[in-house]
Write a structure and sequence with these properties.
290 residues; Rossmann fold; 2 domains; 11 helices
Length: 290
C-alpha cells in the first residue's frame, strides 16, 4: 500500500518511521546531495545513515562525467559511492539495446567534454568526432557551461544540412546554480533543436521509461536486486517532481521530493506536485535529519 501523502520539511516521526523500513534507496545527485553552492548541509550524514541500513544507488542524469569520475568527485565532497552504485543515464548508450545500435561501430559526433567519452567507448563506437563531420549519429552528453550557446548554434547549422540521428542522454533542462540561479543545461538545448528544426531527438534518462527500465536492469543484472520484489520498500529521492512521478509510476516504488535544495526551491509544493499526475508519497526540505 502506498503511504499517505505527507508534505513536510520537518521529518516527523511518521516519516522517519517509514524510511526506517526501507530496503533500497535511490538518490539523485545535483539538488539533493549538492548544488553549485556546495554540499547540502546534512546530506553526507544522511547518505551514510542510509548506507548502514540498506543499499544506496545514485541515480543521475549526469552524463557529463563517467561513473568513475562521478565517484571520485563525490568522494572529494565527503560521500562514498563506488562506481558500481552509480547509475548514470550515460550508461544507457551501451546498455540500452535500442540506443546502442546507433553507436556501436559508428562514427559519433559528440556535444560534450572528454570526461563523457567513456560512455561511447563502452558502446564500442568506431570513432568519437567532436566536430561532427561525416558522422553517423550525434550524442549530446554535456552542455559545456558558458560555451553552450555557441556550440548550440554550431550544431544547429550542421543539422540544417545533415540529417543524422541525435541522442540526448542528459534530459535535465536546468540545474540550480549559485545563489539559486537556474542554469540551462543539455535537455534545454536538445529541446530547442526539436522545436527550432522540427526534428525528433532520442532521449534516455529521467523522466523517460527507458531509463527506469535501465535502472531495473542494472540492479538485477549487476547486483541481483529484483526491484519489483521490494518496490513498496524502495524510495527514490529527487529535486524534480516530474522525475519522481515517472520513476515511481514505471517501477511501482515510493517517491520523495527534496524541495528546498534543488530546482524546486522557488516553487510551492503544490506547484511542484502539479508537474506530475502520479502521486508523490513524501516531500521533505532536504535530506538533513533523515
Amino acid at each position: 500500500m502506498r503511504p499517505p501523502l505527507v508534505h513536510t520539511g520537518e521529518n516527523p516521526a511518521c516519516l522517519k518511521g517509514f524510511f526506517s523500513q526501507i530496503s533500497l534507496f535511490l538518490v539523485d545527485a545535483s539538488g539533493v546531495l549538492y548544488n553549485d553552492d556546495g554540499v547540502i548541509p546534512g546530506a553526507i550524514e544522511a547518505i551514510a545513515k542510509m548506507q548502514k541500513q540498506a543499499p544506496v544507488f545514485l541515480v543521475t542524469n549526469n552524463s557529463s562525467h563517467h561513473i568513475q569520475l562521478i565517484s571520485d568527485t563525490l568522494s572529494g565532497l565527503g560521500f562514498s559511492f563506488s562506481p558500481s552504485h552509480i547509475i548514470s543515464s550515460g550508461l544507457g548508450l551501451s546498455r540500452d539495446t535500442f540506443m546502442r545500435r546507433f553507436i556501436e561501430g559508428k562514427r559519433i559526433g559528440i556535444w560534450g567534454g572528454e570526461p563523457s567519452y567513456e560512455y561511447l567507448k563502452q558502446a564500442n563506437c568506431k570513432e568519437i568526432c567532436p566536430h561532427y563531420e561525416d558522422v553517423d549519429c550525434i550524442v549530446l552528453t554535456s552542455s559545456l557551461g558558458e560555451k553552450a550557446e555557441g556550440e548550440y548554434q554550431r550544431l544547429k547549422q550542421y543539422l540544417l544540412g545533415n540529417n543524422v540521428p541525435i541522442i540526448c542522454c542528459n534530459p535535465d533542462r536546468v540545474i540550480r546554480g549559485t545563489r539559486g540561479k537556474m542554469i540551462p543545461v543539455m535537455g534545454h538545448y536538445a529541446r530547442r533543436l526539436e522545436e527550432e528544426l522540427e526534428i525528433s531527438v532520442m532521449w534516455i534518462g529521467k523522466p523517460y521509461l527507458n531509463f527506469s527500465l535501465l535502472v531495473k536492469q542494472i540492479l538485477l543484472d549487476d547486483h541481483g536486486i529484483d526491484i519489483q520484489k521490494r518496490a513498496s520498500k524502495t524510495v527514490f529521492f529527487d529535486d524534480n517532481a516530474l522525475n519522481i512521478g515517472a520513476m515511481t509510476k514505471d517501477l511501482g516504488i515510493q517517491g520523495c521530493l527534496v524541495h528546498s535544495s534543488g530546482i524546486s526551491f522557488n516553487r510551492s509544493i503544490k506547484e511542484c506536485l502539479a508537474q506530475t499526475d502520479h502521486p508523490i508519497a513524501f516531500t521533505i526540505s532536504t535530506l538533513k535529519g533523515i
